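Why does this matter for the project? Reviewers at the last site visit asked to see concrete outputs rather than summary tables. In response, this paragraph embeds two records directly. Each consists of the residue sequence and, immediately after it, the corresponding structure tokens. Nothing has been edited or filtered.
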Amino acid sequence: MLTTDIPKIIARELSIYPQQVVKTMELLDAGNTVPFIARYRKEATGSLLDEQVRQVAEKVSYLRNFVKRQEEILSKIEEQGKLTPELRSRITKAHKLQELEDLYLPYRQKRATRASKAREKGLSPLAKAMREQRERHGNALRFAASFVDPEKGVETAEEALDGARDILAEEIMEDASLRQDMRSRIWKQAMIETELDESKEGAATFLMYKDHSEPLRRMPSHRILAMNRGEKLGLLKVRLDFDHEQAIENIFRKIYKGPSIFREELHHAIENGYKRLLLPALEREIRNHMTEEAEKQAIKIFGMNLQQLLLQPPLTGYTVLGLDPGYRTGCKMAVVDPTGRVLDHGVIQVTKSEGERQQAERKVLSLIRKYHVTLISIGNGTASYETEKFVSNLIFKNHLDVHYLITSEAGASVYSASKLAREELPEYDVTIRGAVSIARRVQDPLAELVKIDPKAIGVGQYQHDVNQKFLGETLDGVIEYAVNHVGVDLNTASPSLLSHIAGISGTVAGNIVAYRDANGPFRERKTLLKVPRLGPAAFTQCAGFLRIRKGKSPLDNTSIHPESYELAGKILSLFHMDPSDLGNPAKTARLALERPHVNEKEIADKLSAGLPTVHDILDALTSPGRDPRADLPKPLTRSAITDISEIKEGTIMRGTVRNITDFGAFVDIGLHHDGLLHVSQLGEKRVKHPSDVLSVGDILNVKIIQVDEKRNRIGLSLRGVKQ
């Protein structure tokens, strides 16, 4: 592969045009960020989506490293004087790293092996004679006698044959074509088998893997990771079942040329090389490959779930009471106003004596009435069910116009103890900060969740078993996409939120907040250029994603980039408007009514502008300040609780998708535990993966198909259920 081949290869893999890849590579090499390229350089990229730009960036990095490795291998083999034209051609034409390493294997410097020691003893000619199989008369032992040399450590003819077989075994098993063929055969034909040690603690978790067997190539990612975990814990023994004798015979037939005195020696060498060298190496490769693919799938699911969670619509305008349940330390409370400012806080006991519970009722009722609380956010951790029961009874008994919802508190404790939480809420202790976070999460999930390490949010599967570096990079990319997709209010955003905006580092985010604190709210985007360490290049990347409400220019409250303000003004003039009219609801409503009938191409041609940019500007002008999350369904709130003992099979209930895995989805239906909607129950037709039809946050009607009260397990189905 040549460097010039990279755009063609990526274009073929992503089903886009090579020129789109070339332009995207140029923009990336110039230091532009993925969100900026996807949003504001559509003419150059052919309107590639954010995910496509990110994929181009990843593949460019991989292929450039591949070409670099290719050049290293060519150089190292050439230094050995062994680079033939045929080998150069095979290395240059390779497109996979495994193929490249297979070709390099015979020339790679190794620590001392049995074969290398045999070569030092002068046994290479004997190995060559055995490989060529030209000797038809006599016997192998007599032929090998001429290689006996005590000075070199070859005492007998038998030792000479042993050494020659070692050389032959290594040479044959390092053949690139043979390795590729055997790798393919094992992948297609092998079974993976597991054996459970039931005597060890924790074995019950892996009971399904007791004497388990299934085709290697059909193992789903979640079972691969579960199997790996069981093996790591010493509970499972894992092995590949494959017809090894047949494999040895297949290799022998490829090497065998006809009757020879070395026939048995050749077969012996192949059998030894297969069992000692080839099979262990291929088993490691295949298991590693399976694990890598399973990890990629798990990380993909985690990223997808996280993105959907981050983009949950905010419940704006509510004064929220956040409750962080607990048994021993009680239930922590925090009341926050619609802007997230803490109004009051305290601790109540709802799980101990009747007197304490009644006192808690009076205290919560007082807060609800004093601050006009309209929504209660209950954390889903320890004592959540009891707290929900308490809140439900309180609402019913006092006829309150209040609803509640169960909020995932994953990561709340991480945030509470963080430096950021101490800086944001210095006057409150760790426990109250958790309640504040639980309240704010429903007001603006994105703004609150970006403060937490995404690995602590808990919407993945086997997240602790996967490559943590790759997981971190993927989740950072997801957060970057979500934050820039929504945009942030420059005058209210926290440093943690600002640090995910394209072109803004953590240091610059801190500088923006410091400048804002010292000089008051930003009135226009270009003032950002006065912020220390935020120069023209960073301004270009970040400006379009930052919003200023009630600033000098209404355009600053849109996704229109400052570089396109002049074009936006020209477009507005075609509708007899100017930027100041964007604050007039009647005029923007008129523009919105005309929008479906606008000929965008005609406008683009008339103004000598790019069609994608004209399209995006028109979208922004018709709904200035619009939050893209507004189109999504609002979270499901409740006012009454249901006990698992009250539900029966066949009951239809309404629930919220909390988490998606490879094998199904977990749905909150208002019980103590989420119900499992297995992939087999997602509809009348077979669904390949739950993510094809579900998203985190979806609100569904589900049918109860199984109730196991003892184990607190509820089975759900969508079959025959109207949505």
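We now turn to the second protein, recorded in exactly the same manner.
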Amino acid sequence: MSKRLMAGAIATATSLALVAIVPTGPSSAAPATTTEYTVVAEDGVAADAAVAAITAAGGTVVARNDSVGVFQVKSARTDFASRAAADGALVGAAQRRAIGYAPNAPKVDAVEQENLLAGTTGKSKGTGHASAGLDPLDDKLWGLEMVRSDESRREQPGDKGVTVGILDTGLDASHPDLAPNFSRGLSRNFAPDLTDIDGACEVPSCLDPVGTDDGGHGTHVAGTIGAAVNGLGVSGVAPNVTLVELKGGQDSGFFFLEPVVNALTYAADAGIDVVNMSFFVDPWLYNCLDNSADSAAAKAEQRAVLRAMTRALTYAHLRGVTLVGALGNEHTDLGKPLPDTISPDYGAPAYTRQIDNRSCWTMPAEGPFVIGVSALGPSGKKSDFSNYGTEQISVSAPGGWFRDGFGTPTFRTDENMILSTYPLKPLQEEDPPLVDADGNITPAGEGAVVKLCPNGTCVYYTYLQGTSMAAPHAAGVASLIVSEFGHRDRHRGGLTLEPWKVENQLLRTAAEHACPEPRLQTYTNEGREPEFNAYCAGGTNFNGFYGYGVVDAYAAVTERPRWGARP
């Protein structure tokens, strides 16, 4: 999951369910500082009644999503959140802009970019894992072989009528591996830049144009799902499907409630078939109903996140969207969560909280209708960082594991990770830069970055690891299932298939994988502390490391479905 760490109205990123309104005037006076909030209405409360309650609490509604009862609000009152939470018409308010607090500048992600922190031991040793493919760099994509995409594309490479939403930091549509499959018309940006975490806005509106990605994470995810077979670079799991940018994440890697909710409801209304979600909703790793360590305002904020995300995920599922989510990189059994030491990660300093599994959830991974995906290394072992557990897992997929292959030449090499498409700008903005101002790979980027220059124009690829990289392998297979078994959508065109059918075929055709023996997987040899040790519960058919198995693209498109009646 991405975690590196408003100007411009959200409404300009037109959602079919998002309605902009004219501000009704300033809120009750207090300090001059204006704070932004996402406010969630209580169940059964009409939108106009919620707006009235927000106004009475001292807020001004600047945009609204009536489909799920979520409102973008500004207020100059320091007590707005507590006043909103006290009103019976409102669940609570989640703060969007901090007052006098900005997090540290983004740094290398300790999990996804572990190879960059490893120094010279992380550089390529030329021991890549071979894989049969069609594009020049496919021999580095061991994940394609693990999910049998190299075989499935001969039967079903994906249909242009199937749309996959990349709910992420953006999508670099100028990359020649992504351009052939990119839908500019369907793509939207729901996350204007926030200057305190994203830096200076690139455009006056602070709403980056679609087809750009100043974070890089979304472009990497998109390449794994649907990079085209074009004789250049890499190809994706489903190289012929249509890619749709749903920018719900900030350039810095934060994913706040309102942009994510608006992206999900838009996906539902626009007829997107599959949505990939490789993130958790900030600022809370776990959203708890009544954690003793939390203030009243923090509790109300987390209840608002839970209610809004549950509504948005349900809304999308009921309108035909198959939802695929990364389980997370906290090396924890989600049924027995470790203490949360990173929340809140925006707006206020973090503090330690004990997590009660019965009343705390990470979103969207633990939300309704989400297919949860764990990460595997090239050996097939669960990646040391990957979350797991029978409570939330659905399937497993290649996510990379830098430390895989202990005792072999591949140990601690870049090729153990996932190579995919990447924009130039984020590579130049890393600290230290991985690519210099002239477009050359720096010593820091050697091995971690691949550069190709067809026809004199250079493009880039990089290695990352994480459940963020596992989820798009599963999303790609899900899109192949829609391509093979979907039916024509008479209203919107293209193909469609009920999400429960997609999930059934995905899980049923996954390659079963038994727990390791002994079941307690230790990572001592790989240099990890005892807290990384993980116990695999369950049987061969379903267990906490692999779920129902490793996603299998070939089996998914060649085995006859067994849907019968809807469960």
